Each structure stands twice: as structure tokens, then as C-alpha cells.
Amino acid sequence: MMSKYLVASKNMRNFVINMKDVNINKVLDKLGIDSLNAMQQESMECMLRGRNDVVVLSPTGSGKTLAYLLPLVQMLNAESDEVQALVIVPGRELAMQSDGVLKSMGTGIRSQACYGGRAAMDEHRVLKQNRPHVVFGTPGRLNDHLDKGNIDALQIKYIIIDEFDKCLEMGFMNEMSRLVGKLTNLQRRFLLSATDAEQIPQFVEMRRTDRLDYLIDEEPLNDRVEVYRVDSPEKDKLETLSRLLLSLGDTQSIVFLNYRESVERTDDFLRKKGFVTSAFHGGLEQRQREDALYKFSNGSATVLVSTDLASRGLDIPHIENIIHYHLPNTEDALVHRVGRTARWDQMGKTFFVVGPEEHMPEFVNGQCSMFNVQCSMVNGQCPSPRMATLYIGKGKKDKISKGDIVGYLCKKGGLEPSDIGKIDVNDRYAYAAVNAKKVHQVIRLTQGEKIKGIRTVVELVR
Questions:
Q1: Residues 256, 308: contact at Cβ < 8 Å?
Q2: In the β-sheet with 458-460, what is the strand arrangement from edge to edge?
Q3: What is the value of pTM for the model shown?
Q4: For the chain (length 462 residues), average pLDDT per consecutive 10?
Q5: How far apart are CA 208 and CA 213, in angstroms?
Q6: What fold characterizes domain 4-213?
Q7: Chain centroid to CA 298: how far?
């Protein structure tokens, strides 16, 4: 039986069809969503029909971002040039991703992501130019903009804290306390999380609250995730991991480890074996982290090797396998890791790689099958991704669009439209997924060529 947060509402379309200013049906069609689930429906009801603050507790992958964005865009004044809502997130990846979701909705509500790792002055210039209604940001960077007057605190009516448990876990309590204290004209507060915090900190100043609890009480692993145990005969489990990945073929897998150094070591080992991987952890530079995520999300890498940083805030569809090279330390960690697969109504698999001195975590309940990688191997060939990722050194600020990039790659790079996959255009650069068999051809043919009359750099993201 499917969990209750996945049960689609048959009446949701009727509920939203007459909503003021925003045609929700068109938004859902743009996002490729047929209907909303029960959690999203109730969240919309509470935010739009009620006056209370709202806490939404719902599992990873259940669509919480859409649950607050759909009603929020209807609560804002699109005619204003002021920031009216702040969305606090624990990391830059979630800020960028949520900002991308709102932009893709096409509602006319303007937004911007703000986070550390780049100059606040550059963000200020974009804020002045774009005049966003919603700003997604990390606590420290939002405080910086409020302190400098780049965002008018008196105009903020709504605050959303997404993954508020993670924000507290990462030590942002003091920064969030300072931030909320500056927002003296707040009308409502909305908190979202995939795990239940023991209590909401007093500084949030929650008033009368509607609490929507869609968490699953029984097991952290639902019935859409197949659970396997993989025994490693050696304490160093790298060879077992390699054989497991070979047996999984060209499906998308995330390998979770508990330490940055372990991520680097494992990624290096797998690359030498011939796997096409992306390494992802908090010690990397911003450009390196973005490269890693784009490669994995557009199919240019079959394996993402990561710390638990990738267990939150990443909404990459069609991740078939979650592999615990290092066993999760807590049930919450397991919930968030496994939440990367079986998104919405899809199926997924999770594998626990267990060394000779290790035991399965006690909180892993339910049926767990043994997976013999020796018997499962078909051949020793590492899977080759169909796509490769190109970095193009021009972006929106250079008046470059996705259409311009498609034309450039076809006309100058000798590609067919069918050779081109996902394209993401940022302010000063862009990523494009292209046929891996033709990537070196593209780099050779585009050397010294111009895109819309501007010379640019085209490089392979390795």
C-alpha cells in the first residue's frame, strides 16, 4: 500500500482552478505534474485559507517545495518591486534548486538565490536589477543583505524556513535568531521539514500554528524501496563497491560516505577503475560542486560519490540506487539518504555495504535481501554515460539563451538537436549535456568560434 503522502487528490484540480491571478493548472502542466498529493493539498488550504503559522512535516521526496511555492505565489503582490518573502535554506544547492523551481513555474513572481561563496556586492547588483519578490538564501548571506539595506526588512511579510531541522543541526540558530529579529512586520511563518524537531526554537516566534504531520511512524524505508545487504569480505570495501556498481550497469547511483577524505579516496579509486563519477562534499569550491551536480543530473556521470551533503535539498529525478558505503549513523540520516531515490511514485533500491566487523543498523527494519555481487556481475565493463557535460563561458548576462546554445552547438559544433540534452544557463556561464561520442568533436570545432558575436570558452567538465 502506498504511503498517504503519495496519494493524489482527485479534487485538487477543482480546488485550484479558480485561484486568483495564478492559473495553477498551467503551472502543473509546465512542471509535468498531473495532480497534487494530500500533503500539498492540505498545505495549500492552510496557507491560502487560514491565518495561522504552518508547520509541514513530510518525508523527503514528497514535494514540500511545491507545497509552499504554489500558495506563496498567490499571496504576493506581483505589482510591487519589494522583496516580500524570505526562504531560509541550509545550503546553496537548495537555494539554487528552489529558485529554479519557482522560475520554471512561470507565474510572473520574480526570485533570486543568495548564498556564500561569491561576492555579496555582485548579488546586490542583481537584487537592484531584478527586484525579486522572493529571495532564497542561507542565513548568513540573508543577514548580510538585511544589515546593508539591500533587502528592506520592513517589507518582508512571510518567512519560510525549509528543512528547519537541518538549519538547526548545522549550527545556524544564532544567525537565524538575528535574522528573524529584524523582520518586525512579519505576518506569517511557514516551517518545513522531513524529520520532526523536538521543539521549534523560541526565536521563530510561532503564533497559533497549524501542524501538518505526514511523517511515516513505522519504518524509514517504504515499500517502494527494495533493501539489500552486500557483504564485503574485506574491511576495505572498495573492491566490493566496484563489483556492486558493475552489476548495476548504467543506472544512476549515489554512494554515501561519512567523511570528505573518504569521498576523495573512493572517487579516485572508482575513476581509476574506469567509472565516470562526480565527487560532492562541503570542502569543494562552489564551481566544483556545481560541476559535480550538473554532470550527475544530466546523465554525464553514473555515480555521485558524496557525504550526507547530497542527502538534502537535491531533487534529481530517476536515481535508481542509494549505496551506503559507510553505514548511516542515525535513522534520520537513513531517511534523508534513501529519500534521494523512489521520488514521488517511482521505485528505487538501497544497498548496505557491510564489512566483516560491521553490523546492520538496528533502525533498519523490514525485509532485507542478500545481494551477491559475484553472481550478479554480467561482465567487467564499466558503464559509459551517454552524455558528457560542456562548460560554456557565457551566460544570461551576455544575452545568451538556451536557443542560442543549441544553435551554436549545431552550427559550429556539428551536432544534431538529438545530440543535445539538458542545458542550464547561469548569469556568466552555461552547462550543456551533449552526446558523449561527439564531445571532443564539438570542442575541436568550436575553438575560436563566436556565439552571438562573442568569443567564448568551451571545455569538458571532467
A1: yes
A2: 420-425, 430-435, 387-392, 458-460
A3: 0.66
A4: 36 41 77 85 91 89 90 94 95 89 91 88 91 95 95 96 81 88 95 79 86 72 82 95 92 95 97 94 86 89 93 77 94 83 73 94 82 63 89 92 94 94 88 94 94 93 86
A5: 16
A6: Rossmann fold (3.40.50)
A7: 13
Interacting residues of 288 by C-beta distance below 8 A, sequence separation 6+? none
Contact 376, 321 (CB under 8 A): no
With helix as H, strand as E and coil as C, how does the chain read? Answer: CCCHHHCECCCHHHHHCCCCCCCHHHHHHHHCCCCCEHHHHHHHHHHHHCCCEEEEECCCCCCHHHHHHHHHHHHCCCCCCCCCEEEECCCHHHHHHHHHHHHHHCCCCCEEEECCCCCHHHHHHHHHHHCCCEEEECHHHHHHHHHCCCCCHHHCCEEEEECHHHHHHCCCHHHHHHHHHHCCCCCEEEEEECCCCCCCCHHHCCCCEEEEECCCCCCCCCCCEEEEEEECCCCCCHHHHHHHHHHHCCCCEEEECCCHHHHHHHHHHHHHHCCCEEEECCCCCHHHHHHHHHHHHCCCCCEEEECHHHHCCCCCCCCCEEEECCCCCCHHHHHHHHCCCCCCCCCEEEEEEECCCCCCCCCCCCCCEECCHHHHCCCCCCCCCCEEEEEECCCHHHCCCHHHHHHHHHHCCCCCHHHEEEEEECCCCEEEEEEHHHHHHHHHHHCCCEECCEECCEEECC
Question: Do 225-376 and 387-460 come out as alike in CATH topology?
Answer: no
Q: What is the pLDDT of residues 114-138, one digit of tens each?
A: 998 778 888 999 899 999 999 999 9
* Residue pLDDT, tens place only, 187-224: 999 999 887 766 787 888 888 999 999 886 545 566 67
Highest CATH level, class, for 387-460:
alpha beta
Listed by start position, the domains of the chain span 4-213, 225-376, 387-460
Identify residue 15 by its one-letter amino acid code: F
For residues 434 and 438, what is the distance between their CA atoms, to the nearest angstrom?
A: 7
> In angstroms, what CA-CA distances link 278 with 265, 270, 291, 453?
12, 10, 8, 33
Q: Which CATH number fits domain 225-376: 3.30.450.20, 3.40.50.300, 3.10.560.10, 3.20.20.70?
A: 3.40.50.300
